[in-house]
Amino acid sequence: MTDCHPNSLFGMGNPLLDIIAVVDKDLLDKYTLKANDVILAEDKHKALFDELVKKFKVEYHAGGATQNSIKVAQWMIQEPHNVGTFFGCIGKDKFGEILKQKAEEAHIDAHYYEQDEEPTGTCAACITGDNRSLVANLAAANCYKKDKHLDLEENWKLVEKAKVYYIAGFFLTVSLESILKVAKHASENNKLFCLNLSAPFISQFFKDNLMQVMPYVDVLFGNETEAATFAKEQDFETKDIKEIAKKAQALPKVNTKRQRIVVLTQGKEETVMALGDKIDTFPVLKIDPKDIVDTNGAGDAFVGGFLSELVQEKPLDQCVKAAHYSANVIIRRVGCTFPEKPDFN
């Protein structure tokens, strides 16, 4: 049993149904996809979703980066249920019903804004070896509205109950005003606001939105490719991941009561953490490449593990340990799925 209360961890993002398939290089080439990337679907990708279902063996899993992380955190915590709250937008359709059911099974308190103009969003996860190329068709997820959902009294009360907030950078393309409202609330009340760089395209094409939120960020997550792109876009003039972490840590911050923590992962290489002038590195858990089934969701699981300890006010090295454990479990399985109970202490 933890010292957590229901709704103490809040997440908001794009709820998507993942359509996962092991594919070949020809498919990647046909749709000009990089082996390891995350992009938003364009018109040329519309046929990809149909082709996956017709030609490959697909699995459907509830996804969306933030929602994955909140579910993994809840799985790590186990009891009480509903420690994690999640907000996002879905359609009134079959896929939407699946997402609601999966959220309930994962014991998270999901409150979706449901609308019928757009169908529930999907994400094609094209797996080749230990790479994953993600193509997200946001659809309904892109329709989240602050005034129609976040501002409603019963919903905002849930936001106020939380002490740790997590939003993946992907949501910067959807509702900047929603993110800023939550980020400012966290900052004004000395609570923890966490953000993920999420994908290189966020740092490149949504730079202004990202930098409007950055002054409120207490914990910044990212992987090595995202960090490199961020550094380039911010003119950090370094490719050294430790230097990038330091410089991101030192960016202006509104709530000066807390120093920003920057946590950067590098796949099988060590994880780098910057806090103040200090840089720590943490080796990841060893895994036989034969045991890696699907790296889709590894980053989300890392964050989920980290948040599960952060919300319990555990030391940072324990947060990283839990993050490495969660990621190690998830890469042995298809999608961001996990066994019934964790084996972590």
Automatic annotation (TrEMBL):
Required co-factors: Mg(2+)
CDD domains noted in UniProt: adenosine_kinase (cd01168)
Gene Ontology cellular component terms for the protein in this record: cytosol; nucleus
Enzyme Commission code: 2.7.1.20
Domain Carbohydrate kinase PfkB intervals: 28-339
Compartment list: Nucleus
Pathway: Purine metabolism; AMP biosynthesis via salvage pathway; AMP from adenosine: step 1/1
Cofactor note: Binds 3 Mg(2+) ions per subunit.
Electron transport keyword on record: no
Active site per the UniProt annotation: D300
Catalysed transformations (reactions): adenosine + ATP = AMP + ADP + H(+)
GO biological process terms, semicolon-separated: adenosine salvage; AMP salvage; purine nucleobase metabolic process
Recorded GO MF terms: adenosine kinase activity; ATP binding
Function of the protein: ATP dependent phosphorylation of adenosine and other related nucleoside analogs to monophosphate derivatives.
Family membership: Belongs to the carbohydrate kinase PfkB family.
PANTHER family in the cross-refs: ADENOSINE KINASE (PTHR45769)
Quaternary state and interactors: Monomer.
Record's protein name: Adenosine kinase
Organism: Amphiprion ocellaris (Clown anemonefish)
Organism classification: Eukaryota, Metazoa, Chordata, Craniata, Vertebrata
